[in-house]
Amino acid sequence: MKSRLGVWDSHQTFGACFSTSMGKIYKPNEIDGITGPKIDITLVGASSARYFCSPLQMNTQWSSLYENIPGATISKFVNYYTDNIPITVVDFDQMKTDSLLQKLTIVDDQAMYSGRKTPFLIFFQNAKGQKGILKIKEDKRDGQASDYYVLFDLKMQANPQ
Predict the structure, then answer these.
(1) Nearest residue to 56 (alpha-carbon basis) of 1, 17, 100, 98
(2) Which residues pair with 153 in a beta bridge?
């Protein structure tokens, strides 16, 4: 699945919240008591610093910049890693099953991923226990703030193991 999330001012245009169960990006005016609990991926930041975070964390730490997510859940993200994650971009591209995901241990790092060359991977686990990987294909940081976005592919477990 390929998707684009907005960053900073562009979250109004593209949406900064994603539901893996619905396969949908939500703009601020689409988030309510029904859609909020389904959101498990949120992107925050500006041109120089960005990271994926839990919807609940977006509510508590970023409430002055982003809209509240009713029924926000907790997801964990590994935004920045060294060699301790044994999955590469090539592995991601060749994945046909979720066997590599089953072996992952996700510990939320609350780190920025800024300055990384695309493509790169972000690992996560949602509140249901499903593990997944975002392959960041494009991380647009130039031009107007209303044009900033992140283009990604997603692969995740069908059911937690």
Answers:
(1) 17
(2) 2, 135
Tell me which residue of 18, 47, 44 sits closest to 31, measured CA to CA.
Answer: 18
DSSP assignment of 112-132: --TTPPSSEEEEEE-TTS-EE
First to last CA, the chain: 22
> How far is the C-alpha of 83 from the C-alpha of 43, rounded, in Å?
24
Question: What is the side-by-side order of every strand in the sheet holding 24-26?
Answer: 24-26, 17-19, 41-45, 50-53
Parse the chain into domains and list their residue ranges.
Answer: 2-156
DSSP letter at 47 equals S
Collapsed DSSP state (helix, strand, coil) of residue 19: strand
Say whether pLDDT at 103 is over 90.
no
User: Residue 146: its pLDDT value, please?
Assistant: 58
Residue 115 predicted with pLDDT over 70? no
d(CA 25, CA 149): 12
Q: In the numeric block, which tokens belong to residue 64?
A: 């002055």
Query: What's the token pair of residue 77?
Result: 């993200």
